[in-house]
Each structure stands twice: as structure tokens, then as C-alpha cells.
Design goal:
Length: 571
């Protein structure tokens, strides 16, 4: 799911641009002034209205900035044209339409005013990087961030340098490089401390908590979490507190501490204001819903996920709607409602295929844009040479030949790239289709066409025997025992398990035993049990086989699993 980012967005030359302030202080008085104003004065009032509305109503803010752009172009005010494009980009940013947002940032970058002002140029480059981050194009985002960092270093803007370093740190977390991210956060923290920037200091503590959690240093992560929480309460940053709890809930959810994740998602909503930060509010509802699925609160989960979906639909938050469909499909698979499962999974799968297709198309479009830009630059160069060298026909013909060669080369390259993109897309879709067929087969969807219905029914009886009678807790359970219980034979039992799950009999039984062991380890009542007792209670003959199976299944030893749980939750 696309999270509310902790990245510190550099909009210092947009929301806080250095225009002369209008005397109007309320929305009504600004509207009154707008009706009687013209030209440059009207644009300034439109910018004020934009700043008032961007958080609560980004669509209305967009309309103000588009009107400002129209007037700025008519009046030929270069700086206001730049800010108008930037404001429109920001309105789409707040609507989670990041690719469109970048289109307008790029238009702002092409203005002469932006080209002549390094700080504004760097801020635009930074914001482009953030949009690519939200689009999950992390490598491209990182490239733009390092470009922005160089520009801020040129003008020695320490505040922006610190924030850009923080942005880079967040990207490295996304790229699963927590050590590199910690290095950048530690670089920015002393600068922010010197500037007494409490909000961004708290954000950096939050980022450090996230980075250390993902690097497995849970104790250090909790230390920075506590520092962030304390500072946010001191500065009364309720939005930051809500985001902090939400992000920590996401981290706990990722390691399957569902009950504790639910607690933090619930705390996040407590500090949320639906009218001021609707997206964060609905994300927290979504978190509550998905955590409730795995905490045994299925009915609550359904209500929460549907409330979140209604909010995302009102906002037009397409990425969040997409992930909500996936969570709803998981909910209905738990409830055994396969019709609803298919409905929501198909919505999720359709969006996934669309994203893959758009990504390939955008790659080709970007290459074409590079070609068009290069072509335009060459044409300008040609015109200048023609003026200076009217009699130099040989040079003129050489330039034309060069342009044609470049055009043909790029056209051929784009053609080959498009063919490759289409082929790659087809392969990915075939792979997704195969996975979908396997998923239908596993869940026993009513649409599935099983070639061996008897085998499927036998596996269903085996599964019910596991769930209802917990026969996997018997230390001496064998295929022969199951065959007698189900009036079948050992060959049919083994084949049914292998075909439906891809596992052999022992691995299949151990899977249930490991899940039972994890439940016992999570249970506070049984927290004093020895690992030998947990092994016996789960159905294992001895501690050695228990340890081996547990490590293979979870990647952790039972003691490490228990210690991580105690450290991160009960400290």
C-alpha cells in the first residue's frame, strides 16, 4: 500500500512563495477582493486562495491556480507563470495523481524564471523525485534527489540540504538499504538540531525508527520511536503523531504482530482529523481493517475496509483503492465468500495489469520526449548556424544529414523498445494469469475446473480434519493414520496433499504445527512456557525437529521469535 510518506516535501517556493501579502485574512474577504481585482493583483489573490484550500480541497485549489496561470500568460509575467505551473502540480500531488503532477513540475522547470533561479529549480527537481517515489519508481526518484542535493549545496541552503538528505534516506529504506538510509538521516539530524527545526527533527527520529526496525534492530527502533513520539507531543503535532502510530503499526503488521498493529492503527485514528488529513484518516481505517482480519475480528474488518474504500473513492485515491481491493479479497477468502473474493481480486488484478501497461508506455513516452527535446535543441542550433554561415552550404547539408540520421536512429530505437515493452507486458500478463489459476485452484473457487474432483474433495476432508480436530498435534501421526480416519488409502492421501499444496506429507503437517507454535509464543498466558513444552504442545516429537522446522518456516529460531516479540511490544 502506498503510505503517507514521512518525506519532508520541499514546497517552500510554492506554498510559502515570496509574493507580497494581500491584506485579506479570511476566505470571504479574499473572494470579495477577487471579484474587483485584475491582472497581477488578481493572480496574487488567487495564490492566497490556493494556499488556504490546498489541504482541505485540492480540487478547488487547482481551479484557482489554473485561473492564475491563464492571467499570468495573458499578462506575460514569467515568475507567476512558473508558480502557477508549480501550484497546479502541487494540487495534483495532494490528489495523489503524481504522474500528472510531474507534468506540471516539468513545465515549470522549462520556464526562464526557473532556469535562472537555482533554489526554485532545485525545489522543483526535489518534488519531481517525490512523485516518482510515490509511483514506486525508486531508482528514478533517487537520481532526481541527488540532482536536487547538488543544486542546494551550490547555494549553501542548509535547511534544504538536510531535508533532501532525509528524502534520500527514505528512498534507501524503500530500496531495502537501511544502513545507507541511517547514514543520511544521521547527516541531516545535526543540521536540523542547529536550526531548531522541531518538526523535521521529530520526522527524522521517526525515519530512524523505521530504518532500524527494517534492519532488525528492534530495540534501537523503539528508542527513536519514543523520541519522535515525545517531541511530537511537545510541539502538539497531531498529524505527525497520527502518522507515527500508523507507520509503526505497518511495521508491526509486516512481522505478523497483528494485535499490536491493530492497537497502533487505532491510536493513529485517535489523532486524525478526517477533514484536515482525510487520506491519513482513511489509511488508518484501512490499517485497522486489515489487522482485524488476522486478529479474529472479521465483521469489524469488513466495516472498516468498506469505510476506508468510501473515503478513498471520494478522494480519487486510485493507488489506495487498488490496495483496498486486495485487502477486501483477503477478507472474503477468510469468510469463504468466493463470489466476493473473485470480485475484489479481479478489480485488484485489473489495476495491476493496467499499471504494468502504463509503465511500459511511459518508458516509451519518456524516450520520445528525450528525442523531441534533442531534436528541438538541434533545430535551434541549426538556425543559429544558418544565420552566421549563410554561404556555408556544406555545413548546412551536414547538419541536415545529422538530424535525419539522429531521427532515424531514435525512431528505430523507439520502435524496438516498444516491441520489447509489448513482449515483456505479454509475458508478465501470462505469468499473472498462471498465478491466478493457481490461486483459484488452491482456494477451491466455484469457477475452477478441476480435472480430479474426487481428489479435491479428499483434500478438503484432510484440511477439515486438521482444522477441526487438530490431529497434527499427535506426535505419531502418519499417512496411514489419516487414511484410516478418512477411509482412504495412503497413496491417495499423499497425492491429494502434493497436488493441492505442492508439499509432501511431513511438510504439510509441520506447517500446521508451526502455526500452532507461533500462536502459543504470542500468547501472554503461555509466555513462561519452556520451548520444550511449546514443541510438545504443537505436536513435535523433540526439540531438535521443532527448531529445524520452525527456522525453515519463519527464518527465525523459536527463541529469537519470542525475544523479538517481547522487545518490540512489551518494552
Amino acid at each position: 500500500m502506498q503510505k503517507i510518506s514521512k518525506i519532508m516535501v520541499l514546497i517552500i517556493f510554492s506554498l510559502f512563495a515570496s509574493f507580497e501579502n494581500t491584506s485579506a485574512s479570511t476566505n470571504d474577504s479574499l473572494i470579495t477582493k477577487l471579484e474587483s481585482s485584475e491582472g497581477k493583483e488578481k493572480v496574487k489573490i488567487l495564490f492566497e486562495l490556493f494556499r488556504e484550500k490546498i489541504n482541505e480541497n485540492p480540487e478547488l485549489a487547482r481551479k484557482y491556480s489554473e485561473e492564475a496561470l491563464k492571467i499570468s500568460i495573458e499578462e506575460n509575467i514569467e515568475s507567476y507563470i512558473t508558480y502557477s505551473y508549480l501550484y497546479i502540480g502541487l494540487s495534483y500531488y495532494f490528489k495523489n495523481q503524481w504522474r500528472i503532477s510531474n507534468d506540471y513540475y516539468l513545465k515549470a522547470l522549462q520556464t526562464n524564471f526557473s532556469k535562472s533561479n537555482t533554489k526554485i529549480n532545485a525545489s522543483l527537481v526535489n518534488n519531481i523525485a517525490l512523485n516518482y517515489k510515490f509511483l514506486s519508481e525508486y531508482e528514478k526518484s533517487l537520481t532526481y534527489l541527488f540532482e536536487a542535493l547538488k543544486k542546494f549545496e551550490l547555494v549553501k541552503d542548509s535547511s534544504s540540504i538536510a531535508m533532501t538528505r532525509g528524502n534520500i534516506g527514505v528512498l534507501y529504506i524503500k530500496l531495502k538499504k537501511p544502513d545507507e538510509s541511517i547514514e543520511h538521516f544521521n547527516f541531516s539530524l545535526p543540521i536540523l538540531t542547529k536550526l531548531k527545526d522541531s518538526i523535521n527533527i521529530a520526522n527524522t527520529y521517526e525515519n530512524l525508527s523505521d530504518a532500524f526496525f527494517k534492519s532488525g534492530e528492534i530495540e534501537t527502533s523503539k528508542k527513536y520511536f519514543n523520541l519522535a513520539e515525545k517531541m511530537m507531543f511537545e510541539i502538539k503535532d497531531s498529524i505527525g503523531i497520527s502518522r507515527l502510530y500508523y507507520e509503526y503499526g505497518e511495521n508491526l503488521f509486516s512481522v505478523h504482530f497483528f494485535n499490536e498493529a491493530l492497537r497502533y492503527f487505532t491510536k493513529s485514528i485517535t489523532f486524525c482529523d478526517e477533514s484536515l488529513t482525510p487520506h491519513q484518516y482513511y489509511l488508518s481505517l484501512e490499517g485497522q481493517g486489515k489487522a482485524s482480519i488476522y486478529s479474529g475480528k472479521i465483521n469489524d474488518a469488513e466495516k472498516l475496509l468498506k469505510l476506508a474504500k468510501e473515503g478513498f473513492l471520494r478522494m480519487g485515491a486510485t493507488e489506495s483503492i487498488w490496495m483496498n481491493n486486495l485487502d477486501l479479497s483477503k477478507l472474503y477468502s477468510r469468510k469463504g465468500n468466493w463470489e466476493k473474493f473473485n470480485e475484489y481480486f479481479n478489480l485488484y488484478d485489473e489495476k495491476r495489469n493496467t499499471q504494468l501497461r502504463e509503465k511500459e508506455i511511459n518508458t516509451v513516452s519518456e524516450l520520445n520526449l528525450i528525442y523531441q527535446t534533442e531534436k528541438k535543441n538541434r533545430q535551434i542550433e541549426f538556425q543559429n548556424i544558418e544565420i552566421e554561415n549563410k554561404n556555408n552550404k556544406i555545413l548546412l547539408l551536414s547538419i541536415i544529414a545529422f538530424l535525419v540520421t539522429v531521427g532515424l536512429f531514435v525512431a528505430l530505437y523507439l520502435s524496438r523498445k516498444l516491441k520489447f515493452a509489448n513482449r515483456n507486458l505479454i509475458e508478465k500478463n501470462l505469468e499473472l494469469s498462471e498465478r491466478w489459476n493457481q490461486l483459484q485452484k488452491f482456494y477451491g473457487s466455484s469457477e475452477s475446473d478441476f480435472s480430479n474432483k474426487t481428489q479435491n474433495e479428499l483434500f478438503h476432508r484432510i484440511y477439515q480434519l486438521m482444522v477441526n480436530e487438530q490431529v497434527y498435534t499427535k506426535h505419531d501421526i502418519t499417512v496411514d493414520y489419516l487414511s484410516k480416519q478418512l477411509n482412504s488409502n495412503t497413496k491417495y492421501i499423499s497425492n491429494a496433499i502434493k497436488e493441492e499444496t505442492g508439499m509432501n506429507f511431513n511438510t504439510f503437517i509441520n506447517t500446521f504445527r508451526i502455526e500452532e507454535a507461533k500462536k502459543i509464543l504470542r500468547d501472554r498466558i503461555s509466555s513462561s512456557w519452556s520451548l520444550d513444552a511449546v514443541a510438545v504442545q504443537s505436536g513435535f516429537n523433540n526439540t531438535t525437529s521443532f527448531f529445524q522446522a520452525f527456522k525453515k518456516n519463519t527464518g527465525l529460531t523459536p527463541s529469537a521469535f519470542r525475544n523479538a516479540l517481547v522487545t518490540s511490544i512489551y518494552e
